[in-house]
Amino acid sequence: MIWSSQNKNCGGLDAIACVRLKRQEANQNLGFASRPFVLCGLPIKKPATGQLLHERRNGQFSLQVTGHPSYGLPWGQDRLIPIFLATLAIRQQSQTIQFRSAAEMLECFGMQQGGTQYRRLVASFQRIFGATIFFGTDTQRERAAVVHQARFNFMSEARIWYSRDADQATLPGGGFQNEIVLSHEFFKEIMNHPIPTDMEAAKALSCSPAALDLFMWLSYRCFVAKGRERVPLFGDFGLVNQLGSSEYARPRKFRERLEGWLDLVRSMWPECPAVMDTTGTGLWVDRAAAVLSSGGSNAR
Q1: Which domain holds residue 66?
Q2: Residue 271: exposure state from Cβ atoms within 10 A (0-12, 13-18, ≥19)
Q3: Is residue 270 situated within a structural domain?
Q4: pLDDT at residue 106 greater than cutoff 80
């Protein structure tokens, strides 16, 4: 993990109770995620030294992330930054987004505040800023392959500062805000395909990147399901190739991990219909909504 959590027990009882209560009251804290990183996850664990390429596939969608030689691939809790950026882009309806301080983001995801955490946050931004993303779809239409592909960076410009004083919201003199200019392609992707998410659930799962990936994926997958559908766990189009979990390639190991992640997801979302099939090779999903319609826009 990259940032320390205020709650060492990920998905603690207080966090679970908060998520459930807000859901019952239809008062969820609505955030947004970007489609490429819901359909295909970033690395969960720190990549090996020198590894700069990460690839995932989800049906007709494919994701390829190339890390910057100086900073490496985004991984672990770095995946919170695209959620934060997408949420601000939707809320501010702007390609140039602003927030008062790094403390605002740390607080958003329940992270400790202080100089060490700020520096780790800046390092995460460097990995995200330096990464090049290739996201594409391929379909078959009347015997002709139709391919739509886009290569982009998350941001085209970023101005980020931090202070050792956790109580200092802005630089001396005031008026200075963190400012990030999203790349045109990333901003367009967010605006064209905003995927709502429960920010309290994301906060509760922030110290378990794999469970957070599964929650985001199930939120979207169950929303778009037309009925009860089976998703294979293995093979070229299996769930193991969609989440950022390539290190769990062995079927038995992946099933064990998946059951644990599902338990965390169900603790946040008791009505989640996802269940492993009797053979242990597939996951049954059904139409359901993790984000209530009164909370904001529907996923597209």
Answers
A1: 13-206
A2: exposed
A3: no
A4: no
